[in-house]
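User: Predict the full complex structure for these chains.
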Amino acid sequence: MAILQNEIRRLATARSLIRLGLIVFAAYLSYGQTKNSCLDCHSALPDPLGITQAKFSQDIHAQKGLTCANCHGGDPTSDDPDKAMSRKAGWKGKIDRKQIPPLCGSCHSDPAYMRQFNPSLRTDQLAQYHTSVHGRRWVAGDAKVAVCTDCHSVHDLKAPSDPQSTVNPVNVANTCARCHADANYMKGYSIPTDQFAKYSTSVHREALAVRGDLSAPTCSTCHGNHGAAPPGVDKVQNVCSNCHVFQAQMYEKSSHKDAFQAAALPGCVVCHSNHGITHPTDAKLGTGPEAVCTQCHTPGDACDQARAELLTDLGRLDQAIKRTDQVLAVAESSGMEVSEARLAQSQARDSLTKARVTIHSFRKDLVDQDIEAGLNITAKNLRAGQKAMAERNYRRVGLGMSLVAIGVMLVGLHLYIKKIER
Amino acid sequence: MSCLRNARNWLDERLGWDDLIAPLREKTVPLHRLSYWYFLGGITLFLFVIQVLTGILLLLYYRPGANEAFESVQYIMTQVQFGWLIRSIHSWSANLMIFTAFAHMFSVLFLKAYRKPRELTWVTGMILLFLVMGFGFSGYLLPWNTLAFFATKVGTEITGQVPILGKPLMVFLRGGEEVTGATLTRFFGFHVAVLPGLATVFIVLHLLLVQRCGISVPPKLELEWSANPSARREMKFFPNFALRELMAWYVALGVLGALAAIFPWNLGIKADPFTPAPAGIKPEWYFLFMFQTLKLIPSKVWLIDGEVLGVLAFGLVALVWLLLPFFESDHPLRTKRWITALAVFALAYITGMSVYGHLAK
Amino acid sequence: MATNEWGINNPSKQQLAPVPRRRFVEVLLGTGFLATAAAFIYPVFRYLVPPKTSDLGSDAVVAGKVGELKPNSGKIFRFGSRPGLLIHTSDGAYRAMSATCTHLSCTVQYREDLREVWCACHNGKYNLDGRNISGPPPRPLEAFDVQVRGDEIFVRRRRES
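Assistant: Here is the predicted structure of the three-chain assembly.
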């Protein structure tokens, strides 16, 4: 009997030890992971109560160790729904739209708190938001305006640098368009809803979405993101001038600046539009459908004549460059080496681009300087191309003479053969 | 021409010159409907001499090395007086020589000139054909432009497909695992030293063998002439045939000059190993038929990788081609029909595949 | 009896001189040979004479002469098939880099006022090492080595391994 009792005692000890071991092991595994019991039920629930583990794991807050309770309150460690979602534990339930900005701001505007996670993140988003059109309307009680989660998404929120984030530069326009391009949603507001459609035709959109040039502007570049508001009619050129420095400098000193300001016209937008900024062509200076000068100037007046002259000058340089390119192409296809002239042609093209930039000064004398410089360069290249063609002809003449010499030799040989075989 | 006679006497007194060249004085060339084909060998030799001369001239300015090769060729084409001419003649003559070498081989094949006792002439000739294609492959890389770089990459890659030997051979050719400046240096060495040395040896052998065995005559004609000896027509090599050959050489020179002046060889773009290969890379035309064949073989044939099968098949064909005379009948007037059929098929295949490869995307 | 080649007996006349035809062929042959030889030798001879401009390869280029550039100024020079920028800094050193902006390939320039390399197209800025410091450019400008030998300023591409 004693043997059996000892045996049982030994087995019991072993069992307890194993249990203890498993508990220690489980604790070791879950060390550092705050228990998040909410997902146990909510991952199986249908929308709008459902949120899968897969979705939530993409959320940057989850990756930093935060749980549902950090925003929604409650007790995430309890498996009992009543305890987990009890008001006593601080459970807020679904956050009302009106509560979202201060809720996010409770952490994101706290520099001491944010420093623990990413010291270089800004903490003024909420303050900026209050200056924005969205923020001001939100304060006034409008429930339709954008709050944090509308742009940043929620539960699968990603950092802006993530290409899949709704606020990554490549995706920003699509995010804004969710409301701003929806005519039904925007009913009751006095702003148009064609911005996204127009922007989609623009060179900026092409640079960003097609070429992947992240420096190209999107909605937030000109309007701001948290403090989103139109820049103001008299401030438009300040915004454009951040990248288009030369044009802005020219415009600043031009006659149009004061004229537009006096007429409360929005600077660059008058000729270039704000959202649908397409690649400007010389046709803007013309008299056709794309012409911009004729919007204000009467045909035949002094300014209109200047316009016509500018257009002619630009056309002259453009034609000269094309002509030289043609000659160089023929020379090259004949086997002549014209790479130096071809390189210099890019300088001529730079002059043409510069002339088009100088248009913004609206001074013919300045534009003519650039045109003349370009014409000189392209004339030099044309001479190089013509010299190459002359060399090519010289080669052909040389070839002809050699072939004649060979012909004489052949005739001579033929006759000689005939002679010795007579 | 008395100065020439004096020179001859001077040489004869010292070297027995007259006895040395006596066999040449008696050398004859059979005259018949197909005699014109006899020019091809001489033209190939002439083009080879042109290659050596223009090659030596190019050597005076060309610099091997990934950093300098392209620029030195550009320098030759643009700054050196008549550099464009020398370089373009070298490139055109290379292509023409490969063409005439193939034509010469096929004409020998169809005229049945490879039969006993000329088997060794055939073998040395085939080796020369392989050497000439090696010249083409190695020389093509030397300007170090994009097309050449990728063509070399593809070509050496295919070599690497040979089982067992392929990988070491590829590394040997490339001077490493990849095509780099080391490959260029190596190919330069092959092109200006190794291959010319080998080619000279085999050309001398080939010519000596031709002299020793004499010029052959197609079997049917041989039959006629042995039945009716008076019908045999021959032409003395010196000076009659030689003068006619000289005319052909002058024509070739004229054609080369015209091609070089009207269609100068282009430079291309400098090779950059880090940019991806442009679409539709193809080797030079004389490799097109092999390249196109490999493209058409399915990736797996039974259990064997398609490309390996293709490479092995070509290796086998080359071996058979090299040893073709030994398959031929011993009888001097009878020939095996299947060899003729094979020759016709080969010509049609090479021509057809080359055209196909050229037109294909 | 002297007979000429037409078989006509004419004792008074001497044997006629050789037929002009023979001379003609030889003259033709000689002329042809000399002409073709000249057509061959002339280009080869010209080829053998080294040209005036020396070939430095894409590796090195003479970008300018000492004294050509004032301190704190820059100039564009040709480097292979692309433009390069040579800068004479205010403390007397020379810097050289590619002049093709890494954003949209406009040609950059040296700004004396900013002491930086600037791209006029979209306000991109690079420092004197070529590193992109502001604006759209995504990558630095390729920097080159500068060597002053005598009164010539040599710019060389940095050696690739």
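Chain A is about 60% helix and 0% strand.
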